[in-house]
Fold each of these.
Amino acid sequence: MNAAMPPVHAELRSRPIAAAASAFALYLLAALISLFIALDKPVSIPIWPAAALGCGISLGLIWRHGPMVVPALVIAGVLAHLLAGIALVPALAVGVVQPLAGLAAAATLRSLGFHSAMERSCDYLAFVMAGPVVVALSTSIVAALTDPVAVLGWPELPVTTLRGWVATMTGASLISPLLLVRAQPDSAADDHRISLLFALLAGVLIVGSQMRGLPAPFTLACSYALFSVALIGALYQRPRRVAETVLVTGVLGIVCAGLAWGPFAQSADDNQRMLLMFKLILLANGSLAISAVRNEARRLADRDHARLRSLLDADRRRSSENAATALAAELNQPLSAIRSYADAAARLMEASADGPIQAESLQRALRGIVQGTERASGLIRGQRAFQPGEALPSADLNAAIARALATLDWELQSRRIAVRAHTDAGLPSVIADNRELERIVLLALHIAIEFAEQARRSLQRHRLTITTGLLHEQAAARVTLRMDLGGSLLHVAGPGSDEATAYEVDLERMRAAGGTFAVNSGGRHHEIEITLPVVASEESS
Amino acid sequence: MNVDAVRRVWVVDDDADVRGSLELLLETSGFETRLFESAEQLLATIEPQSRGCLLLDVRLPGIDGLALQAELKQRAIDLPIVFMSGHGDIPMAVRAVNAGALDFIEKPFSDDRLIELLTTALNREAARHAVSRDRRELEHRLDRLTPREREVLEGLVDGKLSKQIAADLDISPRTVELHRARVLKKMEVANAAELVRLLLDTRS
């Protein structure tokens, strides 16, 4: 069988085995080292380097190779604990739960749409935050399995959870080099490079201080500072703001420590104070992180908006250039004929000085000039009417609106603009080119978004209602984009005026087809109206 | 050299108005025109012996102007070509001229410029035709010579005396004189100097 197997199939089959073997070896080695550190130098919370390293590595390996490496990790975990002299039950508990925690973390990241290229701050945040939750749960589960009575009583459960958070910070720090390795050379992950190095430093510091037997508060303070710098610096993606971030997070850490060890918690023991401090720190850092992610979302939306606009402008320019080139080529033929006929007429007139006039030829030349002129003017008339002698183009207005909304869906969501479309299903086709119509609707939506941005003062949602329908005489279809701006439109008025402003966008081609495009603003509402002639058909008549 | 100019212009343009106007302009200026709507129509009519020059639009339906130029070359139809275009396509003009076209004019063009170009093209074609005709005539005369007369002719062209030619060919000087008289008669020249000049002129 094996001899008959093609080499490519054999290679494909050997890949999962190689991945599982490498995962087993790496996990066994890491678990043995971390267990040696944890058991040899127990300080205050001996479980966390081991738990963090185990969960972090299992998360990284599962993310890289998929769930197929879980059995290898389980075997390696159990074996490492047994070799370290730990009893069978705790060894089984830790060996099984940690890879499963990694599996759950990887699944959580996938469901959150995590991009391992780390192009967005939310990816970094998800990576750091999805890990802690799972590690905290895993350490709690392990503790509950091994010593349920102690864990369920206060304050052991929150302290165990706290250990989970700290452990995850360590784990995230230690596996940060993986991110550096996996980052694409030209991706935005380069922006995170400094932050990831800070995170790595935090991890090394924690492990190093654990091995040297340094006091827990010192270790925690240092690791907190470095990790905060890493986290917030990464979220802002601006290396020059690292100093600012160090200052902010440092002050926050001092304030939190002051509160935890200050007069408000005088009766608490060290574990409770530490727990309180970390709760405050997490609250502060969480607020900063959420703020950073929101800012980034806005920045990305602005960038996409500008990019879309430039694309629309480029498309418009290219269309104009193509139309001009085509018109020039078309006009050149009759102009050339006119010129030649005129030259011939001039020669005939010159020749008539020496002999009889060639009336027939002269007449032919003049007729040719007239015909050429008519042909040229016909081309110009056709261009003006956007009807170059062919059937009028028809388009589905509702479909164009649906496509435009789909294009801008993410931008509308990120700007908290709720869209409600009331489209008339019986709307007949309208006179317009499909692409041109879609461009016009996109333009209208962009104007609406701009107005919403200018009018925005808080986190309020805006509502955009799109309605399509026939005008009463059935000669035109109308689409109205009505935006409720919640009475905050004062800044939208025209230059130097607080009054409502109304203006028209110059869309010559649409006007030539008999359509109009108008933007009317005032008071609470903002409206964009597009009217287009309806294509005469049996359905519409 | 007798230049026998034929003022015939083969015009290919897909636009009827342009064709009509060119026909009138060229006929008014003393040219004879042949009008075609497409390259295929021209190729169905024109032959290697055809005279005149070509006025081709670059952009044509089907076979375009540059492809037509290549096809004519392949069919050994070596008439001068003037290209015209309404698109101002400089790279295309360069390609056309590199491929042997006489010139490239942009529509709309002045009649003087067009007529000047066509006149140049026709004169060039006439000169080329005259050379070709003289060469054919000379070859015809040479074909009438016997092998021995050809050997005597070569000796004369090399500037040898009758005795030297007789020694080379191992015949008597008297016989060489007889062959020499026949060669001059068949080549329609009065003496040996005129014969040498005729051969050199035609070869050049």
Amino acid sequence: MKVLLRNPSRELEIAGSHRVHALLAKLEMNRESHLVICNGTLVPGDAELLDDDVVEIRPVISGGA
Amino acid sequence: MVAVGSKCRTCRGPAIIDLPRHNANFCAEHFMELCRRQVTKAIDHFKMIARDDRILVAVSGGKDSLAVWDLLLDLGYQADGLYVGLGIGDYSETSEVYARSFAEQRGLRLIEVKLRDDYGYDIPTAARATRRPPCSACGMTKRHIFDKAALDGGYTVLVTGHNLDDEAAVLFGNTLRWDVEYLARQLPVLEARHGFPKKVKPLVRLTERETAAWCIVRGIDYLVDECPMAFGNKHLAYKSALNGIEEKSPGSKAAFYFNFIDNMAPLLAGRAVADGLELGECSNCGAPTTGNVCAFCHLVEMASAHAPVPVEMVMKKGRGKR
């Protein structure tokens, strides 16, 4: 699957299907700090992402105080 | 994507988001209902906004400020926006597009202040000229301009998009230093006093993940990119540490912040030295100050006399490596 990352913007190709939480763990990303959008739709942690999906992992943490 | 197993807690339809701190999953409709409920509870419990208040929302083009503006409108309040163009290169130019487009699409009034045009400086230049950390120069600038715009415009309440993560991270930093002065003033509402408008934070019951999800579900375009000058700041490090705890123990951030508000803040009431200071008026701009000239006017004097500094010159090294 194609995985889009932000801050900075970059793209990864990850083989096989993965549950959202497993994908975040594989990429060492905290669940609380990210949302996952699959083919334009927000998906929960147990959603299974397939090989032909386009996935965005969107960070939600911003730095201003 | 394969159909998910998790169901909405309310309607048992397919969930779009899991919220471990509520030990629940929600569909889009009932997630929005949860957000509305949390914001209403914050507004009512802390007596943030009355129905006859004139509301000004500080808007950056990011998720939190657009979410709070949208939520207030959704809950039936009328509110104008205030955007401050900070002059942080492409980041500011893009953020302005998001703020303006949100307002235009909804026919809302957006007041715009441009630092370079209106005050003769920008944040990178201010940071370099005053040798302050960029976030410090930015914070002081925004506080002054927010206060001035609210008072000049006759607004009775100034709304900011600070969320639970922001407040928990600031509390964490203040607690690490046992900074009683700041701890005593860390409240979701600061009442109006001479020279300062009432300031409120209606998103204190929502996490950043929830405000971002609100924007996605509502179709609100916002600036996802992080401020290039915030990279590596302590605030982000505190948030990251708290999210590490939250992942292991859901609900920790809310417990940390709201137990402070319920149990500690009353003990600290009246302890802030700043609350008891006699404030005069800045001889230049009339803003409240303990001196002859306020800190903002000092900053403007130094920054506007300095040659413009591009943002790249004051960005921290290491950007892009995480």
